[in-house]
Amino acid sequence: MLPSHEITHDKSLDPKPVYGSVSSVDKGLQYKRIKTSSEHTGIVNLESAQDRRENTLCSSPSTKSSHDDSIGGLNYANTYTRPQRLKPNWLPATAIQKFKSASDFFRTMPLEERHFVLKQSHNALLRKDPCFFLQPNSCKKYSAINEFHHFPSEKTSSGVPHNFLKFLENYLACRILASSNGLILGCSTKKNNQTELIISNPSTQSWFLIPTLNHLKEYPDSEINIAFECNSKDFMLFLFEVPTEWASSCYIVKFYSQEEGMWKSIGKSFFTGTRRMIFDTPYIMAYTIEDGESRMLRVPKEARRGSHDLSCKMGIYKWGKVTSLDGSMCLVRFRKCVFTIWVLTDYKSCKWKRVLKIRVRAMGIIEEEPIIVKGFIVMNGDCLVFATKKKVYSYGLSRENYRVVEEISEHGFDDDEVCFTCYSDTLRLCGDGATTLPLLQQSY
C-alpha cells in the first residue's frame, strides 16, 4: 500500500549537467540541442563601445535599493543612490518596451538594430521562461482558445500584447504547437480544411508563414509531430511525417531550410522498430539528427507498471539548469493522484533515477477533495507546473525552491484536459520575409 506521501531527496538529484550528448524531447520526439559557443561571462565582459552605450543607464538619486542581476522581477519604481549599470539587452522584451515608452534615454537607444536584437535574444536563452500559454487538449487540431499566464514574480516585466491574444482567437482556429526564444509556432486550419504553419513573435507583432508540406495538403487530418527550437540567430524546424500505411514503421523526417525557404528530406527515416509509433505510449524513441540513428530508450520498470490505467499520464521534458550547455531529460508520470519523476542519468545504458514521488494532497494545496489534475509540465528544468480544475500551481524541484508549492493563477478551462507551452518574450526576428501581424482585422 502506498503511503500518503514519499519524498526522496539528496544533493546528487538536483538538476545539473550530467552528460553532453543527451537530447531534449517532448512527447517522444527527440532532437539534438544546439550548443552555443558563448559563455555567460563572455556576454558580460566582452563589450564594444556600442555595447557600453546600450548597457549604461543612470537613474536619479533616491533611496537605496538592492539590484537583481537577473532582472526577472524588475521593479520599475526602484531608484538608486548613485548611477547604476543596467543592461537593457538582458531585459525581457516587455520591460524594454515599457522603458522605451517612459524614458527619454531608452528612446534614443538603437533597440531595433540587429546587433541589439541578436544580443537580447541570445541573453534570453540564459534566462528562465517566465510565462506560459494554456490550451485545452480536447481538440488539438481545431482549438483556438488560449490563455496566457505568468509566474507571480514576472507579471511586471514579461508578457504578450493583448491584441496578440485576440489575433490567436480570431485567426482561423490558430493553435500554438511550440515556442522557443520568443518565437511561437502556430498551426491554423483554413475553411477548406488546409493546414497553415505560422511562426510569429508577439512582442514585435510580426509573423512569417511556413510553406505547407505536400503531405499535409494531401492528408490535412493527419497528426502533426513537429520539433521546434531556436538559438539567437536560427531556428530548427523538424517534422515527422506519419506513415500513410498502418503497417509502416518508418517516419520520413523533414526539416525547414530558412535559407532556401523550403522543406527538405533528411536522408535516413525515423525507424520505430517492429511497431507503429504512438507518441503517447510509455516508451521513448530517439532520433539523432546528425547521423539519422534511431533507437528506443527503455523507461523505468516502475513507470511501466500500471501504464494502461486510465488515470495514467506521462510526459518527457528537459531537466537541468537553463544556463547549462549540458542537460538531461526527465520522465513525469501522474497516476492515481501521485506524481513520480525520474531523471535519465545515462543515455547509452538507459539508466534512470527517481527524484520525486508524492501525492497531490501532500503538496500543501488547499482545494476541495478530490483534487483532479488536468495537465502538467516541467518548466525551466527544475519546476513542476500543473493545473487542477480551477487553478495552476508550481512545485519546486531544485535546491533553491525544493518542495515549495505556489499558486500561479486561476484558469477557465474547468473540466477540459489542458496542455502547456513555455514562453519567454524577446525581440528575436522571425526570419527574412517576416511581415506585420494583421492585428487590426476583426475576422479572417
Automatic annotation (TrEMBL):
Region named Disordered: 42-71
Superkingdom, taxonomy of origin: Eukaryota
Protein name in the entry: F-box protein
Organism: Senna tora
